[in-house]
Every structure is written in C-alpha cells, then in structure tokens.
Specification:
The chain is of the alpha/beta class. It has 12 helices and 10 strands. 43% of the residues are buried.
C-alpha cells in the first residue's frame, strides 16, 4: 500500500517508519529541518526495549508533489489543523482512506468536512514517543497500538477496507486492532485522556503527585463519568469494562508520567485544550448535560491555548 504520513512527528513518524521498514511505500509530509534530515539521513527510531532502526523514505512538504495515496495517516496535533487540513485534498483520490489518530473526538468530523465522510476512518493510538531532534524519534516503553474502524455508514461489522489496512499494518510490528465501530475506541480513550490531560496540565504535575490524593482520585473518576455520559448522549456506548481497565491503568502507570498537554505546556508550546477539554464542554452544551469538572479544567487551561500567555506580545494576564 501507498501511505502518506501527514503529521510526521513523534506518533505519525513512528508508525510511518514501522510501515516503511516492513516494505510499504511511505511518504512523510514534513517541513524544514525534519524533512531535510529524513531526506539526507533517513528517519531514525530509538527504542531501548524494542531496538533501534533507520528507514529511508520520501519526505515532501508539498502534497501536490505526492498525489493520491491508498492511506493517509493523519497524526498532526489538533492545534495545527488549520494548516494541515487543507493539505489533505491533493492526497485523496477516489479510493483513498484517511485514518485519523488525533486526540479528542472532533477529528473525524473535521476531516470529513474537507474530504467527505466516505474517505474517513477513525481510530486511536497508545504509544509513548517523542521527536527528540530532526529525523530522530525516541520511544519509551513498548506500547505501539492502533485501534480503528468505520465512523460513518455501516458500523455493524469490520469493513473490508479496515481489515485490509489492518492486514498490512500487523506485519509492521504494530499492535493493530480493527473494530466495527471506530467511535468506541475514540471515546474509550477520551474518557481517560480528557481528565488526565486536564488534571496534570492544570496542576503542572505528573500523575503520581495527583493520584496520591484520594479526593483528587475521586474527582478524576467523576470527570471520567462526565465524559462517559457525553458518549451516551452522542449515541456511543463505551466498552463495558472501561472503568475497570481505567482503574488498573491508573494504579500501575509510572508516577512520573506526564500528559502530552502538560509537556507542551511546560515547553511554552500551544496545547490541545480545545480538542480535549473544549470539545467536552461544547458537546455538553449541545446536549444540555452538566460537566462541572471538565468545564473548570477547560477554564483553567484555556488562557494557555496558544502557549505561555506571559510570553505573548500584548497578552492580558
């Protein structure tokens, strides 16, 4: 299959490298020093537990020079959508599939507005990677999973195109799980990620400092229940064991774990507050559902959406 990786950073770059190493035709959409490093030296993956490797693959900054692909893996940060979404049409032909792995629950609709619902698949990923330098992605841990499926149309069975993509990704050493309804894994993750990123970001602390406080643990679960209620209002039934697996995960996660939102915040970068806490608040308003905890986290993080407001010219703080 021919893959374009739109968002060739820590997540997209990692999975694209895995696919390229397995023999798939991969083109990375990248810019600047990262593009130049991939072109000159290849894309390097370092993983203390899974091994290091380098792949040579095409890297372009202009999708017009790439043309229609079989699959576009869309993995940009949500706050880059304004610039990234217009890059999709040149990559999409009549049979192209756009598989989004973005955080949050808005991505499939955002992409469908650009390329049409028929081209969109939705999924989520669990992987710990970081773009350490141009052309260098470092993985911590061993998780490298993608769970995905149809989000529009027939969601009663695993579709042939979903299975075909899964069959290509599995030999690339990607922990791939095709599902009938791609909305379920998206909301399953949102139940965890919206509170996790919100609490760690608002507190400016890794999870260990927060999980040690019983009152905060209960508030975290209450926030997760707010998201689960939203899922139901959206017509999505989250996995029956979701809160059991959530408890198991939160009780075993390394205390030093930080959300990507917290990492971006600490670096003074934009944060995905609108895709996470903001999305929850907007959907709650639409369904007339109370989400007091998520609304508070949204209010606390919103001023930092574009980066540290104290560093922005003319900012009011």
């Amino acid at each position: 299959m021919k893959f374009a990786i739109l968002g060739s950073g820590a997540v997209g770059g990692y999975f694209g490298a895995k696919l390229a190493r397995s023999g798939q035709d991969v083109t990375f959409i990248a810019r600047g020093a990262h593009r130049d490093a991939i072109r000159t030296h290849g894309l390097q993956i370092r993983s203390a537990r899974l091994g290091d490797f380098i792949v040579k693959a095409a890297a372009e900054d202009d999708p017009q020079r790439v043309g229609p692909m079989d699959v576009v893996l869309y993995a940009v940060k949500a706050y880059h959508n304004r610039g990234a979404l217009p890059m999709l049409p040149p990559l999409v032909g009549p049979e192209t599939v756009v598989l989004t792995l973005q955080n949050g629950v808005d991505s499939v609709d955002d992409i469908a507005q650009v390329v049409g619902e028929a081209h969109v698949l939705g999924g989520t990923t669990y992987v710990a990677t970081a773009l350490e330098a141009p052309g260098l992605i470092v993985q911590t841990g061993v998780h490298r999973s993608i769970i995905f499926g149809e989000v529009f149309g027939d969601r009663t069975r695993i579709s042939p195109r979903v299975q075909a993509i899964a069959d290509v990704m599995a030999p690339a050493d990607i922990q791939i799980t095709p599902v009938a309804d791609g909305r379920v894994p998206i909301w399953d993750k949102f139940v965890y990620l919206a509170p996790f990123s919100g609490f760690t970001g608002a507190a400016r602390l890794p999870i260990g400092h927060l999980w040690a406080l019983p009152a905060l643990r209960e508030m975290f679960y209450a926030a997760s229940r707010e998201i689960a209620a939203l899922a139901g209002a959206e017509g999505v039934t989250i996995s029956a064991s979701r809160f059991e697996t959530l408890t198991e995960y939160m009780n075993t996660i390394p205390p030093s774990t930080r959300s990507s939102l917290l990492i971006d915040l600490e670096m003074g970068k934009p944060i995905e507050v609108e895709a996470l806490q903001g999305a929850a608040v907007r959907r709650a308003e639409r369904h007339n559902l109370p989400v007091p905890i998520m609304a508070t986290l949204y209010a606390a993080l919103k001023p930092w959406e574009a980066g540290d407001p104290r560093n922005l010219e003319g900012a009011v703080v």
